[in-house]
Amino acid sequence: MATARAFMQNVLRPLEEMERDFGVFYRWLSETFADDPEAAMLFYRMSLEEKSHESLVKYLKRLVRQNPNLFGEIQLNLQEVIDLGAFARELVRKTKPPSLEKALDLALTLEASSAEVHYRNAVVYARPELAGLIRSLARGDVEHLTGLQEFAAKRGFKKLLARDLPRFPM
Ligand SMILES: [Fe+2]
Asked: Is 18 a member of any domain?
């Protein structure tokens, strides 16, 4: 039981918190750009999607709670996930309302970083349940990246389109 708890603390909690932090970040952006309905809607939709990612992690937490012996031995350091969540939280707490271009730049950076971290982690996890979850989260990040880039293109923010998207063999 103790190891299942460690698994929750070390792996699932940071994942859940990062999704929640991203959700708060997009909610903040949707409120920041309330006067631009298209931008507000994009960010609002993304905040809802982050909520559904958070629910995915919560679902796995329940699975672990019900089958503590299945998930005992994995011990990973998800410091990057913790750092990314903290970065999103700091933006919301400290940053003055950004320009739309800057907001998209920040969102692209967050999603590209988290996609990369998820992808690296998914490869490491031996547990199919967990690898599957992390791949879903990574796929969500890539969908967000694509949506953000399409929107950036529509608004003519060419500088933002030059960056490479992480690619996933999924
Ligand atoms: Fe997400």
From this structure: yes
Q: How many domains does the chain have?
A: 1
Question: Can you give the CATH number for the domain in which 35 is found?
Answer: 1.20.1260.10
For the chain, which ranges sit under pLDDT 50? 1, 168-170
CA of 110 to the centre of ligand 1 (A): 10
pLDDT computed for residue 152 by the predictor:
96
The predicted model scores a pTM of 0.88
Taking CA atoms, 103 is separated from 60, 84, 95, 160, in Å, by 31, 16, 10, 11
95 lies in some domain = yes
- Between the CA of 72 and the centroid of ligand 1 the distance, in Å, is 25
Asked whether residue 167 is assigned to any structural domain, the reply reads no
- For residue 135, the CA-to-ligand 1 centroid distance in Å is 11
C-alpha of residue 148 to centroid of ligand 1, in Å: 13
CB neighbour list of residue 65: distance below 8 Å, 6 or more residues apart? 4, 8
Tell me, in angstroms, the distance from the centre of ligand 1 to residue 140's CA: 6
- 170 within some domain: no
Whether the CB-CB separation of 22 and 88 falls below 8 Å is answered with yes
